[in-house]
Design goal:
Length: 120
């Protein structure tokens, strides 16, 4: 089900389908604020997969917190979230979910072999 409330400005038609997974146990707010004339904000529940369209130059801000306070906990370049074949992924296995969580928490580290991921 598409929930496009504020469509991407027509200035540049190069938007891509992206995917973000909330691999934490906290409710998060995902925002894109760096695209002129466009604002994107969604609540992402623990374990939920957020599928959205955005230009490659966008940054997805992840805010985590309780009730009235929220902390910017991550800022992810959307080019890292592009779905290759633009299909909604099947539910990942627990090991694949662990890789996703590791990559979200360690964006600059190379993706390790699944057996080398530290237990969280």
């Amino acid at each position: 089900m598409s929930q496009i409330l504020d469509s991407i400005p027509d200035k540049d038609n190069s938007s891509f389908v992206m995917c973000y997974v909330n691999a934490t146990s906290s409710i998060q707010v995902a925002r894109i604020t760096n695209i002129p004339n466009w604002y994107f904000e969604r609540v992402v529940f623990p374990g939920q997969r957020l599928i959205f369209e955005a230009p490659l130059e966008a940054y997805l801000e992840i805010h985590t917190g309780m009730m009235a306070s929220a902390i910017l906990s991550d800022k992810i370049p959307c080019k890292r979230l592009v779905l290759e074949d633009e299909e909604v992924p099947a539910s990942p296995s627990p090991k694949a979910q662990q890789v996703i969580e590791y990559r979200n928490e360690n964006p600059d580290a190379p993706t390790p072999e699944i057996s080398n991921i530290p237990k969280i």
